[in-house]
Amino acid sequence: MNIDTMRRQRGAATLIATVILVVIASLTVLVVSKSAINEQQRSGVDARSKEVYAAANGALEYGISQLMILYNDNDLTTPAWDSGTNDGMAAAGDFAILSYDPDGDAATNDAFVQGIDSFGLSDNITYTLITAEDQHPAIIEITAPVVGANESHVTKTISMRVLREDLGGGSPFGAPPLVVEKCIPDGSALGTPDITSDQVAIATIQGDSSDGDCLNQDHFDITGGGIVGEPTNDEDTSDTSLAEALFGSEDAVDEIQETSAIEEAAGIALEDRGVIYVTETTPWGSSVGSLSKPVILFFAEESLCPAINGGTAIYGLVYYEAPDAGCDNQGTGSATVFGTVAYEGNLTSINANIELVQVDFGDGGENTGSVKTIAPLPGSWRDFTPAGI
Question: What predicted TM-score, i.e. pTM, was given to this entire model?
């Protein structure tokens, strides 16, 4: 029998080579598949990480805005500290818990919807006093933990420290209806603007109320028996600025700007704002503030003292920061201001359409005449807990 040994050997070699190629191909497919799966996992982790970061930052912003409201709601209550202290005198280390409830329905905690998942605050938002609450400024740490509703293993906790400070130590909500830094020269009042006051109706900081050329009551229609005078009679105020008289210091102007920016960034509605810093030159036409929640409406120098139009009602303090060259338009118009209108420098133009009404806003919150500012502490944002803190 003749056997073709060489042919059989070639067939075996071909079979072995084929098996090796199949094994290599299979291994290649497995490696590629494993790599694709790992890549999907990394992409998924990255996407979930971004989602949970976004949710945690949203929670943190909510915590900051609510702290601003808690300190400016015109009652004595501060955050509900664990110690039970609510008069602004809580000690360092005290903490309070805030439930996330943006729609105000007092129901179960709402959830952030971010990406493909929603995130709840299982441990809620925590306020921790780093300093005593009555310090100036006080430092409060806000911690916002979030957890995935459908994927509970996806969690993140972000924290930030904020400074809580009085917005000046003056009397922004206790001043006369009309306050000028210097004088109201003759001819400045067009018609007879209406002022209702039974105390000091018109006041000057640096001027002389006894000088008829500086303040002339006859140019105004004052009802209630109000007089003209200086806010303080027991000390020399000739070098005191309007900002120092009303807010306690010039630095308060920067705090007003920062507070306004925080409230705006937090999405607080205009009618609910406590501080509004205006740089636009267009006329103001929105009613703001209330008897229970007065507002500081601050027209910055670059606004050039815009008029107030539209028959608006403003409760609180309207402050005009005058440019060096003064204002062509001193901000009057058709409005009723319950509280105070204050002008830097000389008041060179005021018309009869504006009505100023003296108002007692009560205790103004935990500290008479004091508005609280909440400002983030630079460099304090953390997505981890630093050792020793």
Answer: 0.61
